[in-house]
Design a protein that fits this description.
The complex is a heterodimer of chains A (252) and B (264). Chain A has 252 residues and is mostly helical. Chain A has ten helices and no strands. Chain A folds into two domains: 30 residues; 213 residues, MetI-like (MetI-like fold). In chain A, helix 5 packs across helix 6. In chain B, 39% of the residues lie in helices and 23% in strands. Chains A and B meet through helix 7 and helix 8 of A and strand 5 and helix 3 of B.
């Protein structure tokens, strides 16, 4: 067996062994089964929740919140980022504010966001949009500033209008960095939605994880954690696909 | 004497390096006739590219004037530059790259695609209109850059060592194609190169520049010896080619030595 095949086998066998060890340890009560339910019990619960539609309901509402908040954050981040990157006056006006507020952990803004936007859906969109917008702005600015000079020279030599410099040169030129920013933002979005839903919501994956824990339905909590992982993997795959479609010239 | 197409008068360019003033160009005065193909050779760092970028409006002269004459009533752009580096946009396909200047001038999509097709055919890009640059060879990408410049139909064409990054065979083919396209359009061309060979085979006149600060050292007339249309192979096998080469090289040699002493 060559090294490559061995690695492939290891990458399947190791998680399987861990699951098996967990199963055995839980059943033989080496670990406390009230907190660490056996994988088989969790899977059973997963099927029940899937059939009742409960799981789908929570997943879809979380997905919707992420989608709306992420879109708002990305679109405004790209627009602001292009302006900051291309127009010195905008940069002078906005850059200090952005730099000063960026390090604030966005989870810490949840109380404020809830006061401003209420307990409804708007506060969920807002907290995700806030988390996303910073990363997208910073990456867009950096993308614009690192566009090769030659492309800007061509734009100037052909007297491209400011709008065309935005749409035909700066935006596509910064696109690889913008999408990299979106990928990082997606991870942040998941953290924020789960936090927001466990704090103030009546639905969603985060709500599911937190409430089931509080009422000691541990299997359901694990199903919630599992779904969060699945959601994250799917959204990452979606962005990878988007990257391939949007920037074919960077494909290796 | 016909009215020149391009008139440079006492062009100076000084830039600051730390707190030291460096003169890149000193007192360049030059007339380029309409339809003329003028090459500029000179040692590295003599300001050839700077001069071209000033004419292109990408840099400003410290003093002196650049005048590009427009035919009365013409709305054509003053210049279009073909750069040495890869300058086609990787995110635009061949057709949209070639039509970039036309888009900047406000032509609608259908109109500019129609305008750009003949020039794409001429530079051998038919069938590649929808390709993205990363799917093309270096020579093909430079064809796109040339098509983009010609498609914009400028008063004068500025070319900054457009074939310098290409391999020898590709370069020969593209030189011949450039001559063919140019002979049809008779654009006024300013062509910067470090290749004496290229300067002789392509140009009507060759301007030899001095080492920094760049001055006009001598302008050599090629056209009277090699009339148009030209066959590159015939030009190169002619005894006059050797004479020109020797003369330009003897002018250039001293300057190259001077330049290497300065930079050492």
């Amino acid at each position: 067996m060559n090294a490559k095949m061995l690695n492939r086998v290891l990458s399947v066998v190791t998680p399987a062994l861990l699951l098996l060890a967990w199963e055995v340890a839980s059943r033989t009560q080496i670990i406390d089964f009230r907190f660490f339910s056996a994988p088989s019990a969790i899977f059973k619960e997963f099927v029940v929740m899937l059939e009742s539609g409960e799981l789908l309901k929570h997943t879809l509402i979380s997905l919707q919140r992420i989608f709306i908040g992420f879109t708002i954050g990305t679109v405004s981040g790209v627009v602001i980022g292009l302006a900051v990157g291309l127009i010195p006056a905008v940069s002078a006006a906005l850059k200090p504010i952005i730099d000063a507020t960026f390090p604030i952990p966005k989870v810490g803004l949840l109380p404020l966001v809830i006061i401003i936007f209420g307990l409804g859906e708007a506060s969920k969109y807002a907290i995700i949009a806030i988390g996303v917008v910073y990363l997208v702005i910073i990456n867009t600015v950096s993308g614009v500033r690192h566009i090769e000079r030659i492309y800007l020279d061509v734009g100037r030599n052909y007297h491209a209008s400011r709008l065309m410099m935005f749409t035909d040169v700066a935006l596509p030129g910064a696109l690889p960095m913008i999408i990299a920013g979106m990928k990082i933002s997606m991870g942040v979005s998941l953290i924020l939605i789960v936090s927001a839903e466990s704090l103030a919501a009546k639905s969603g994956i985060g709500y599911l994880i937190w409430t089931t824990w509080q009422v000691f339905e541990v299997e359901k909590m694990y199903v919630g954690l599992f779904m969060a992982a699945v959601l994250g993997a799917c959204l990452t795959a979606l962005l990878d696909w988007l990257e391939r479609v949007m920037i074919p010239w960077k494909r290796v | 004497m016909v009215e020149p197409k391009l008139r440079l008068r006492d062009l100076n360019r000084r830039f600051m390096l730390r707190d030291r003033a460096v003169d890149a160009l000193a007192g360049i005065s030059l007339d380029v006739a309409p339809g003329e193909f003028l090459s500029i050779v000179g040692p590295s760092g003599c300001g050839k590219t700077t001069m071209l970028r000033i004419v292109a409006g990408l840099e400003t002269a410290t003093s002196g004037t650049v005048e590009i004459m427009r035919e009365p009533g013409s709305t054509r752009p003053l210049n279009a530059m073909v750069f040495q580096q890869e300058s086609v946009f990787p995110w635009k396909n061949v057709r949209d790259n070639a039509a970039f200047g036309l888009k900047a001038r406000g032509f609608g999509k259908r109109e500019r695609y129609e305008m750009v097709q003949p020039i794409l055919d001429k530079v051998g890009l038919r069938g590649f209109e929808d390709a993205l640059p990363h799917q093309l060879s270096g020579g093909m990408k430079q064809r796109v850059a040339i098509a983009r410049a010609f498609a914009n139909d400028p008063e004068i064409m500025l070319m900054d060592e457009p074939f310098a990054a290409l391999d020898e065979q590709t370069k020969l083919i593209l030189q011949a194609e450039l001559l063919r396209i140019w002979e049809e359009s008779r654009k006024t061309v300013m062509y910067v190169t470090h290749s004496i060979d290229e300067a002789i085979t392509l140009s009507d006149r060759v301007l030899v520049m001095s080492a920094r600060p760049g001055r006009v050292k001598e302008i050599i007339d090629i056209k009277s010896a090699f009339p148009r249309p030209r066959d590159i192979a015939a030009v190169k096998s002619s005894p006059k080619y050797g004479e020109f080469f020797g003369r330009i090289w003897s002018l250039l040699r001293d300057e190259v030595m001077a330049a290497s002493l300065v930079s050492a």
